[in-house]
Write a structure and sequence with these properties.
GO molecular function: DNA-binding transcription factor activity, RNA polymerase II-specific; sequence-specific DNA binding; zinc ion binding
Protein name: Gastrula zinc finger protein XlCGF57.1-like
InterPro entries: Ikaros_C2H2-ZF (IPR050589), Znf_C2H2_sf (IPR036236), Znf_C2H2_type (IPR013087)
Number of strands: 26
Radius of gyration: 36 Å
Largest sheet: 2 strands, antiparallel
GO biological process, one term: regulation of transcription by RNA polymerase II
Helix content: 40-55%
Family: Belongs to the krueppel C2H2-type zinc-finger protein family.
Strand content: 5-15%
Number of helices: 15
Length: 434
Amino acid sequence: MSYSLIMVSRAETKQFADVKSGEDSTYTDQQDNVGDSGKSDKKQKVKKQHSCEQCNKQFGRLDHLKTHMRTHTGEKPYRCEECGRQFSQGSHLKQHMKTHTGEKPNVCKICLKSFAQTSALKSHMKTHTGEKLYSMRFSRLGHLKAHVRTHTGEKPYTCDKCNKGFSQLAYLTTHMRTHTGEKPYRCEECSKQFTTQGELTIHVRTHTGERPYTCKECGWTFSQRSNMRTHMRTHTGEKPHRCEECGKQFCLLSDLKKHIRTHTGEKPYSCEICNKSFREKGHLTIHKRTHTGESPYRCEECGKQFITLSHLKSHVRAHTGEKPYKCEQCSRQFRELCSLKAHMKTHTGEKPYSCEECSKQFTVMCSLKKHIRTHTGEKPYTCDACSRQFSELGHLKTHMRTHTGEKPYTCEECSKQFSQLSTMKTHMMRAHSC
């Protein structure tokens, strides 16, 4: 049955085209036969006398020109009372209202699927007829035009606020929300609002737990396609982002941007309390905890708290005895990767970090930073109890125990407790050495 309908549809289309062609030729003949008086029974074509000053496009009616001008000015006088979204044309608002009412008056006669907009139904009908008027890949002229811009680089839609150009009007509309702060898409679960429908869709998965994208290599699932694509690089080894300065390559563009700052010296993230600057936002967040005293990561074994998760993980290995990082030269093992890297330099003799003041060299950057403070006299760590200042964070932590009375180090022989590890070691040598 459906096949017959399709065939009829195609036949009717051809018949309509033939009739229209005949009408056009008749119209042309009659126009050619108009007498000297210039009179004709046929209605004359309307002259396009209203021209747009921005792009020179012409219109037969003034109200059409006025509507067109809104594509340049960005004016949207028609507002949806339901969600606050605004439109440049009243017809667009009417179509939008159907998304709230659920009305879909346009029904496909072949498969009975319904649509809110007539244009959507027309595009759908081409899936039945197989018609693709505009090249082999596009069923709508607008889609073809938008695609062609990916080749030409044309960006005809410009933001009035920042002059940024866009290849599609929809992209400009979305971009404008970064200036207006408009967030028309709202999560029904937690009321959080979003700029685009795509952002809302991704957010909803945090409530539903849906992870529709699966890695075929290891079975890991992801809530976003982009995250899965990035993950796939761990299997393929692909590193598409390359530093032009040193040739180092990265899986993520964000990692490349962070790396470039090691060449430029740029530190865009600054602490409001001490004005110290950082290359990465995460480093600033961790630094701020040295001022606030916040230690969000807690050891379940002994209750000790840490500023960073990596510090907690390293600490936990002190309980488990795990030392996953092994030196291939001497088989010595370490709890932290940075400790292994520093140790490896004792074999190579490498000391890449040099003090500009006295030329003393160091194997690790943190040792150089501590050393530089002996020249500058800087003491960035302050005790909240007595305002005493220290050049190293470890010294401040040790000092704080004089206020708290904390003694975290216990002698295994006599159970005596100490506030400092060095004091306990001295005690062990003097009191329990054989």
